[in-house]
Amino acid sequence: MVLEEYQDTLGRIAGSMGILHLLIPAAICLQIVRQGSTENINGAHFMIGGCITLLKMRHGQLLNSIHMVTSSSIGFCMCMFYLSVYTFYDDNRKGLGKLFIKFLTIPLILIAYTFLDQPDRAEKIFGTAVSVMMFCLMSFPLFKIKEVIQQKHTGDLSLLMALMGSVQSTLWFLYSLTLGNYIEMLSRMVFCLMCIPQLVLFCIYPMPKTTSRRGKSAKNE
């Protein structure tokens, strides 16, 4: 296969894009620091990100992919940093800790399973479970499509997340082709296709012009 010659290059680029993708939540942390509290901000996003990157790190180990392990390890550290910032400004730290332990339960059980079963079978079952969890996570924006069409604007969607998600999924799909892992190939292809409807909606419906509205309100005052 021609792509096998570029396996290392594809892995590096895909891993770098994955890290860049996880820089997007940094804007949420900045918002928390500026307002000095976690009001109206849900910390579950950071917990889910930490769990997913932890699972992908173990999956990379099972696939003997240094690029998946490296990018997921950095991504996990980034999510933990975001969560630490959130925890610092949150008033209910005990409740937040209990919630995080609940989130970690399933990933830790799945990771423990991989050490108990045969490596080949463990990789297939573990990879399928991780793909299903990521599918559930990435399907959330699709539930807003009906609302976007009714309101005729894409204010509830994130163009950057959809764009980065589609590029990242495409790169990981090409990389999984070189690995010959069909579960990873199928999941990445599905993730890329899930981003397409969101990108199409951004082409049809413009973003709400908040700046112009603020300008008009200022003039009226």
**Overall SS class:** mainly alpha
Order of helices and strands: HHHHHHHHHH
Question: Domains counted in the coordinates: how many?
Answer: 1
The proportion of strand residues reads: under 5%
Give the helix tally. 10
**Low-pLDDT stretches:** 211-221
Major β-sheet annotation = none
- Termini Cα gap: 66 Å
How much helix is in the residues?
over 70%
Shape: globular
Q: Quote the average pLDDT.
A: 85
Task: Detail the topology: elements first, then pairings.
Layout: H1 7-21, H2 26-35, H3 44-62, H4 66-89, H5 93-114, H6 119-138, H7 145-151, H8 159-179, H9 182-204, H10 210-220
How is this structure best described in words?
This protein has 221 residues and is an all-alpha fold. The protein has one domain. The chain is 78% helix and 0% strand.
Short description:
This protein has one domain (2-220). The chain has helices at 7-21, 26-35, 44-62, 66-89, 93-114, 119-138, 145-151, 159-179, 182-204, 210-220. It is mainly alpha-helical and 221 residues long.
List keywords for this structure.
repeat, 221 residues, 10 helices, sugar transport, 78% helix, globular
